[in-house]
Design a protein that fits this description.
The protein is an alpha+beta fold and 807 residues long. The protein has 14 helices and 48 strands.
Length: 807
């Protein structure tokens, strides 16, 4: 049927299906595909090639429109359907390389890509709850298909065969089966037979997901409020699914370089004298340090935005003094404001009507709040506390302005904690009957908004920092999150336990966070709850050096976690772990820049780069940095070799220089280490010297580790490490390639961009050289026979060169 004729017919069918009832939902935009039948209402749009948005809601109700997660720019101008066909009760619409087939009566639908592969199938109909209080929707799962995502939930790397509650919830010392946790990210990547597809249910309401537990062939979503706003992502490569999801919800912005360094934290460093002594000790022990974190004891009566002047009498001077040494200060700001008359910011919140209102403030049946409405008060760290109404843009601006004195003092970053939101009561949160005011005049109860509260605080903090310090890249850390929070903040896994089980959990939790959009994430090194033995703390430091966020943090009244606490040998190994991190910074910063453009995680599950290798589909004890380095920590207690599953293809053992094939191998890190590292055959990895501060300009040589193999390439990204000059082209990209040949190899570097290189020379280290080689240009070559590695020094700060070795 001609598309114009079909749209006219669809409009007539829509009115006929409504049986004379006017739908209360506003009509969609021109080009939307829309059906109203006995089972409810369906509207489909195609925001981008390979992505379809399907909204389902009961007849007579209002269509879901707004989103806390999705960047409005991603939905600005979706193309309309390219072709529409109908056959009986079946209607098929094609757009963006996808074909959506819908049954008029049940609204069951099937989505396929241009090759005919299944992207999603919903057998329908939706089971709606009474009174618009949510519903239940099923999607089919394919046999052998694994599921990943949902943020940093526990219960293993794959979500298949398990159930999860999505309700942001504070937990102390969680275990492998603890649920719910601090974040709710309703996104799943499904992978089977080398093909990936994605589903994102955009609902910040309390919800539940069954990933093939009750019925192995069904993925069942239940939401407690509202309708279903689904985004279905075609893939078929896993990377394409993640790129499509982050195109909708946003990507981690390029962080300041200092944020990639080592961070020392504790609950709490309780005085100015203690903080100064801490930083002094790091210098005496020759330990790199980029940031010190201050927990709630730096505050007056543990109240946000108020400094404890008895413990920190010269707080602003301390911050400036540390900054002069290159050490940044990060401070905590919980969302509970101490409800004390005559104090700020409580009085300012009252004047501006910025607080969530008590449920008694609302008349029965709806309408505007009663005159003299009072704020909702809940118990938190400062005692009775009020909470900002962060669903309102004007309140987010007010909240962001509260950071101005800290920014003027030189504070570099902000830590949003307790923002599930967490209260000291039985339910650990606000009553369900609390109502939130929305921009535009509407309201929603707390059940519908709860999971977005942490995101909204992170957004208000990020935007406040950007407004008051426009030339700097904000650094914000959030504990609670919903999809899209990665646009505004890094995150961590919360109050982990200081034991072997707690350390082992960090790998799958961080991997699923990366799949779910959070490229900048970490776990508390050493474990938050409890006391690690010296060997565990050392092993955790060695693992933490490879996490995107490298922060050592611990609970109150637990043993200390500073690197020097257990004697000289542990200090030496922990120092070496930190130094390895700093040498890796050129490579890590390049990965963060890639992530800011693509949404791909820095820390990746093995299957992301090797979707056709079923042997690594459930691998949760090793991970990739980018595509080129595989990190395998010894997670169990003991010593000696331990098993690692390498993806198909060849790999190089970084420490020994031995070449090994894919499959199960016995990892043997050096005797004084607990982490084995492998390089992909074909990887070129840039490393630097280890500065005392990540943000300091490195002094010395750039080292280029060349691990020959197919698809031999690498990249280095350079900019100022701070500010936004890179957006105006103040950057440099260096592209490296190698071409192995019989009896030799050629390594080439070519660059673009004006940013000046920092290095005084480039050391090109080629591995797998069987005998002493010679350079074609007669450059001096050093040869390590034990590791079969040849090194050529390229003098000066050259970014473009060719090295030709022959043996």
């Amino acid at each position: 049927m001609n598309l114009a004729r079909w749209l006219a017919a669809a409009a007539a069918a829509l009115l006929g299906a409504a049986a004379g009832q006017e739908p209360s939902a506003p009509p969609g935009r021109p080009g939307d595909f829309e059906l109203l039948g006995p089972a409810g209402h369906l509207r489909a749009t195609f925001p981008a090639p390979g992505t379809v948005r399907v909204r389902l809601w009961p007849a007579g109700e209002v269509a879901p429109e707004g989103s806390f997660a999705v960047d409005p720019a991603a939905l600005a101008s979706p193309p309309g359907p390219e072709e529409a066909l109908e056959e009986g009760d079946q209607v098929e619409v094609r757009a963006g390389g996808l074909s959506l087939r819908v049954d008029r009566r049940s609204l069951a639908f099937t989505l396929r890509d241009e090759a005919g592969a299944l992207v999603a199938e919903a057998p329908g109909p939706v089971a709606w709850a009474k009174g618009g209080a949510g519903g239940k929707l099923s999607l089919l799962l394919a046999p052998g298909e694994e599921a990943y995502g949902l943020g940093d939930k526990t219960k293993g790397l794959s979500r298949r065969g398990r159930t999860f509650d999505l309700w942001n919830y504070e937990v102390w010392g969680f275990r492998p089966d603890t649920d719910p946790l601090y974040k709710s990210i309703p996104f799943l990547l499904l992978l089977g037979g080398g093909r990936a597809r994605g589903v994102f249910l955009d609902s910040a309401a309390r919800s539940h997901v069954d990933v093939g537990a009750a019925d192995p062939g069904r993925l069942v979503w239940e939401v407690d409020r509202g309708a279903f706003d689904l985004y279905l992502l075609a893939g078929p490569a896993p990377a394409a699914v993640i790129e499509a999801f982050t195109a909708l919800t946003g990507r981690t912005p390029l962080p300041p370089l200092w944020a990639l360094g080592y961070h020392q934290s504790r609950y709490s460093y309780g005085s100015e004298a203690e903080v100064r002594s801490l930083v002094r000790r790091f210098g005496e022990e020759r330990l790199p340090l980029d940031a010190v974190w201050l927990d709630i004891d730096f505050q007056e009566r543990r109240a946000p935005f108020r400094v404890n002047r008895k413990a920190f009498p010269h707080f602003e001077r301390m911050v400036r003094d540390l900054l002069a040494q290159g050490v940044r200060t990060v401070v905590i700001t919980d969302p509970h404001i101490r409800a004390a008359r005559g104090t700020e910011p409580f009085e300012g919140g009252l004047r501006g009507d910025h607080f969530i209102l008590d449920p008694s403030s609302w008349p029965e049946g709806g309408g505007a709040p009663r005159p003299g409405a009072r704020p909702f008060l809940g118990k938190a760290w400062p005692g009775d506390s009020a909470f900002p109404e962060l669903t309102l843009a004007r309140t987010r601006r007010w909240w962001g302005g509260l950071y101005r004195p800290f920014l003027e003092a030189g504070v570099a970053g902000f830590w949003d904690d307790m923002n599930e939101p967490s209260l000291f009561n039985v339910r650990k949160s606000m009553p369900e009957e609390v109502r939130h005011r929305l921009d535009g005049g509407g309201t929603a109860d707390h059940v519908a908004v709860h999971n977005a509260y942490g995101l909204l605080q992170a957004r208000a903090t990020f935007e406040g920092v950007r407004a008051w310090r426009p030339g700097a890249r904000p650094f914000v850390l959030t504990r609670a999150a919903y999809a899209g929070a990665q646009r505004f903040a890094a995150t961590w896994t919360g109050d982990d336990r200081a034991d072997r089980e707690g350390m082992a959990l960090t790998v799958p939790m961080l991997l699923n966070l990366g799949v779910s959009g959070f490229a900048f994430a970490g776990a508390d090194v050493g474990g938050f709850a409890g006391c690690p033995d010296p060997a565990l703390l050392t092993a955790w430091m060695e693992l933490g050096a490879y996490q995107p966020l490298f922060r050592n943090h611990s609970d109150k009244d637990t043993c200390r976690r500073e690197p020097w606490v257990n004697g000289e040998e542990d200090l030496r190994r922990r120092r070496e772990a930190i130094l390895r991190r700093y040498r890796l910074l050129p490579f890590l910063y390049t990965l963060f820049e890639e992530s800011s453009r693509t949404g791909l995680p820095v820390m990746r599950p093995l299957w992301l780069e090797h979707p056709d290798d079923p042997a690594v589909a459930l691998s949760d004890r090793a991970f990739l940095l980018g595509r080129d380095l595989l990190v395998a920590p010894r997670l169990a207690e003991g010593s000696g070799p331990f098993p690692v599953d390498l993806p198909a293809g060849d790999w190089w053992e970084v420490e020994s220089g031995a070449r090994v094939g894919g499959g199960r191998v016995e990892a043997s890190p050096p005797e004084d280490r607990t982490v084995a590292v492998y390089a992909r055959a074909g990887a070129i990895v840039p490393l630097g010297p280890a500065p005392a501060r990540a943000a300091a300009r490195p002094q010395g040589s750039l080292t280029l580790e060349v691990w020959p193999g197919p698809d031999c390439r690498g990249e280095l990204y350079l900019d100022a490490g701070e500010g936004y000059g890179y957006r105006d082209g103040e950057l440099r990209r260096v592209h490296y390639t190698c071409t192995p040949a019989e009896g030799g190899i050629e390594v080439t570097a070519s660059s673009e961009g004006p940013f000046p290189p920092w290095w005084s020379a480039t050391l090109v280290v080629v591995h797998g050289v069987p005998r002493p080689p010679a350079a074609a240009d007669r450059a001096e070559v050093q040869y390590d026979a034990a590791r079969q590695a040849a090194t050529v020094a390229i003098p000066g700060g050259r970014a473009d060169f060719t090295v030709d070795l022959r043996w």
